[in-house]
Request: fold
Amino acid sequence: MPPLASVPDLEQELDELYSRPLEEWTKARNDLATRLRKAHQSAQAETVRGLRKPSVAAWAVNQLARREQGRVAALLDAGARLRAAQEEALRGRGGAADVTAAARGEREAVRDLVAAARTILEEAGNAASQPTLDRISQTLRAAAVDETGREQLARGRLEEELKGVGFGSLTAVKPAARPRKDELKRARERVNELRAAARSAGRDAREAEAEADRVAREAESARERARDLRAEAERAATALSDAEEEAERLR
Reply:
């Protein structure tokens, strides 16, 4: 019996596999591997057999790549802008405002896609729990700025969630250029100004504390004087009362 014809387009077959409902995925993968083996494509069959069933979050992201191509493209574009802004900032050629604006665009793109993923999960009968949505968000953000993740997201063939990669290759970015002499001079002058202001403020604070202590001592002395006068007034009032009683007795 002659061998079966080769699978006409393995890439197309894989795209179809990753687009299937999650509950059909494993059987479809095994069927594809069997067809490849029968077509004498043993290496490809082993590769396909080794593919892992995507997690729920990864599956939802794969569906986004197929059903929300415009929004995914917007996210990848926003991720590229964010990465470029971060690189410029590390080189000393960009400001925090540029990074903040780019990060805001990336967050908005992620938020739109997470909302779409919720709908996809609910339509497929999967729970759109907050932990799952958080993993989807994390995967989208990681894919937006990582080259490998960007490719996987664009192809829609993720097997598991992606982890945050931070700045990724930005650790290789050249450090910012050293400040020019005039900038360094201005910075030193500013330091000297602030140092003098700090010393003056410290001096004023010590003088104010000394004045407060003096006023407090005077106030305490005044209170003691008032207590003495009050006691003297009370003694005088007692003596007056006694004298009035004695005068009344002698009448």
Q: What stands out?
A: The chain is about 75% helix and 0% strand.
